[in-house]
Amino acid sequence: MLDQLHAVIYMPKADNEGVISTFHASFGDFLTTPGRAPDNLLINLSVAEAHLFFNCIRVMSSELHFNVSKCPTSYFPNPFYKFTIPPLLQYVCLNWPYHLAAVSVAKTSDAGISSYLKSLQDVFFPKFLFWVEVLSALNKAGAASSLIMTALTAKCLVHAPKSVTEFLADANEFVVSSLDAIASSVAHIYLSALPCLRPTSQIAKIFWPKFKCIPHVCLVGIQYKQHTRLVLTGHNASVNCVSFSRDGAYIVSGSDDGTIRMWDVKTGYPLMEPIQGHTELVYSVALSPDGKYVASGSADKTIRVWDAKTGRAVMQPIEGHMWSVTSVAFSPDGALIASASKDKTICVWDAKTGKASIKCIEGHTDEVCSVAFSPDGSHIASGSDDRTIRVWDVKTGNTVIEPMLGHVLSVTSVAFSPDGAFIASASKDRTIRVWDAKTGNAIIECIEGHTGVVCSVAFSPDGSHIASGSNDETIRVWDAKTGKAVIKPIKGHTAFIHSVAFSPDGSCLVSGAEDETIRLWDAKTGKPDIQPIKGLMNWIRSVAFSSGGTYIASGSGEKKIHVQDIKTAKDLIKAIKGHSSCICSVAFSPDGTHIASCSDDKTIRVWDAKTGQAVMKPIEGHSHWIHSVAFSPDGTCIASSSHDETIRVWDARTGKAVMKPIKGHTGWFCSVAFSPDGTHIASGSADGTLQVWDAKTGKAVMVIKGHTNCIYSVAFSPDGRYIASGSADRRIRVWDAKTGKAVMAPIRGHTNCINSVAFSPNGTCLASGSDDKTIRIWDAKTGRAMMKPIEGHSHRIYSVAFSPDGTCIASSSHDETICVWDTKTGKAVSNPIHGHTGAVFSVAFSPDGTCLASGSYDKTIRVCQVTIDGPTSNEFSPLPVDLRAGPITLPETKAHWGATDNWIRGPNKELVMWVPPQYHKFLQVPPHLIVGASAKVIVDLSQVVHGLEWVKCYIG
User: Fold this and answer.
1) Coil, strand or helix: which one is 700?
2) Do 196 and 291 belong together in one domain?
3) Contact by Cβ (8 Å): 525, 926
4) 750 FRET partner, CA 20 to 30 A, in 287, 855, 937, 951?
């Protein structure tokens, strides 16, 4: 029959391949319209779609099987292979959901619907992973979620039993949460994504019994939760801004990579090639109300306007700002574009011509970070580094009300409520505030909860909620009237969150972050990907040797303290957890039995150095972040310095204050140190002065001036005669401890802030660590450099400490590592010590010199042994790649653990296992076990088949 219709139907040359189509749409209408087509040609569309669905199921039943793509090895990603999937199988895998969705419920009997359900349950469910394999091989893994959701929302499945909807929901969760692994490697659908499923998942229940010799993943103290609807990847740098289209169909994003991208909300696919034109990073994007245009603001000082369909520029770059454009917004009628800049001004432009509609608005005294139009378009709100929110008349540029005051640090984001009655603001002071838009009065003075800078705020479409995104890597949703949290913090991003926005219907939240991803969340549940049953978690600011030099302690932003053995680099105890915010400083007691730590959570804690157990309740008293702790030489007291501009001295046994708070600096205290005889305390402050205090009375002994910027670190010489100080002015100074006079000219050499200084045990050398990523060693008498700068860290250095024998220097860095260096040569004496999942702020040697303790932004303290020869990794045998089929153990170091791309790799970058990013902070990588941790992820690879042997994992 088809041959007889060649005049109206196109037939491919090879009749077993290709697509049959009509030459003209009218012929299709003719065939499907009763009364026009004869009965023998009439096509009932619903029936036809049903037939196509069943035929798709039939083909999948016969053709789908394990390793249908014939992937030879698990070591390499998909692009290394040329997979051959038959065209028919390609078609059915990509189209069966659409045929199911097109079936008319009204024209389908109950028996018919039952047959659809039976087909899914009997055929698709048992072959689901093989279907995912086909999509992966076709480079269509990103479409999996859209296809599943198309089936799940099909009208004929409205009354489907719970078992069907539950399976499809779990299937969608699987392809969204493991998209990285699925898209990267066919083999790792089975070797990585499948093992990471929660045990209650319907996918796990069906497929786990069919596989052996795959990784075993054990979650302890963690609830399995997956509420990320979609993860969009494509930007190759931080995502700074995200926005929904008015119809909610697509998302626009801007990035540090200088591009703007547009994404389909259902599939996660880019709608077009990246929009390029800006010559520097993109700070802000905004969609016009009619969805036709995208405006963008950039560090290149320009605003650009693009066609939302084509991505082409619709006019020349809008120029006028003298510095970076930090924020852009369309007026509600789309006629105007407002822009904010680091040049302290706001400008308003004609959206069609790009010409200024009024003179640039001046009034802020510092960089303007954010602008927003009121819903009626009459006003513009702005937030600035000058800590104020201001409201301006759009036509005149005049202020409408007095500046809104309340935030104590920069205002990063502002947003009007949908009715225009309120303005929400976010700040670097970690709070959100809500203001009356007419009067400027505070409605909710301070919404607290975030533990980092709040970068973005957005009202829900109905105005009932406010969403906020923060540097603490969480999104939070608040009641707009009360300021109370309405759901638990939303977690999933692995870096600072720069932007959040609600979908037009309020059902979704979109977020953009420094981890280069865009994520969509369910705004109603908003539950985190995984949630510790008992709170824990992030950077390393401080390090210290034990007095014998056998241990180093480090403090971190991940709220943990780590204690490590110098000889083996092994954790001696599990990461010490308890702080609820980043750990700024750690110190060993003189006898090495205890570790003191301080945190942004305003507490000092004291731990048993062997067990990691707290020896007393948290020491409370400071009213702000605590930056530094130090034990007195006899171990009886602990001194602490804080952002609250006080030093406090505590009894090391009881935790009680031994005197009133010490005050005197006009800025926050950065660092404290006891003199070797314990009679004095030195402190460095943000006010640029160094002060010396009587350790018994707290009275000021002297004020030392000379630095021109914040003093981040102070240290006494071992004989107590001198005090060294390191400053943001890039200078080290050495002072006479009795007179306060400089004993030499400022020591110069670092090219950025100096965060840490330390004397060698014999007093002949000074070590310093800096934001310029180097450690330098100086002659303590002359101030001359004793060697070239020590390089090795990839980011700023927060802390340096000498070993008790003076032969080594430990350093901790924003790059999440601790390094140990030979004092004479400047060479590394071991591999970098990994374990923290955030910047390491502090490191300390134990008094006997055998261990290191470290404190980090990840809120943990770790205690680790270090080997001078450096740990070697034995996770792979020395056999050639094609013969490596033996057991695998996790690396002893992170040398092959790519936290940036989520893969554990072999020595030649072979893919071993993909680890979900939300597990990173809890991951146990033997032998660096986090002992006593209430939340952890343990991965056992000892029985895994891999390489050419990977196919043996399937037992059917």
Assistant:
1) strand
2) no
3) no
4) 855
